[in-house]
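INTERNAL AUDIT FORM
Audit reference: QA-55
Scope: verify that the stored structure record matches its stored sequence.
Auditor: D.O.
Record contents follow.
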Amino acid sequence: MLPRIKLIAIDVDGTLIGSSKKPSERVKEAIKAALSAGCEIVLSTGRSRYTMRPIMHELDLNGPVILFGGAVVLHWGNGDIWHRVLMPKELVKDVVAVMRSYGIGAVIMADGTESDCVVAERLLPPTEQYIQRNRERLEWVEDMTKVVPFEPATVAGIGNEEVAMKCIQELRERFKESLSIAVSYSVAYGGWVVEVHHRDGNKGKALKLVAEKLRVKREQVMAIGDNLNDIDMLVYAGFSVAMANSPEAVKQIADEVVPSADEDGVAHAIYNFVLQDTA
């Protein structure tokens, strides 16, 4: 029998939400039931506070949340910052130059504590879809290899799978352990997102911090994810769950595989691996 799970960490895009781009009623009911049973629900995402507001409101969550792939952890209810690591401007310039060499228009994201702005460069803009979804908070500079207006939580860019994989390979070879580099497929943007953070900004380290802060043992943590940027989180958790829509590399390291996001896999995981012991 599994140890009693007290903390459930859930990735958002491709895990909590699928092609409908919002949590299903069954998933919302499962999360509500887990909360009622005394579990802490921690959403863990590459998104910003700005783009998480509707989801946190819809699920009525007010506890800790992992943002920007682990670069920021904050308590949603009181706004306390539990963890924040930002990228130095000189490193940002170098990362932008690498992304640009692969035809990827980079953006930098403010950490959301004082500003939610996203900055893009006119020299190589991000995708039109990204511009449309972020127009009201988007600001511009001419060339981010010359001017970086602030230390960001994330440097990100969108490309097709082949380009994105080549880009992260070069980024990892060049920067090694000095940065946290991840890639995942985004349903919202219809492409592969390359995300670069401070070296201490990943979902695994962030989840460890949250568990320790809440005094939850590692073996009492369940993590649910679907993509390559979730691997650190899944490895940390005492019990890990991959979605059916995950790449093989993610499924191979998970303890269990559940149905896809479109088939309410998160609800399946909660009802079968957590609430069965509380029934």
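Auditor finding: record pair retrieved intact. The mean pLDDT is 94.
Action required: none
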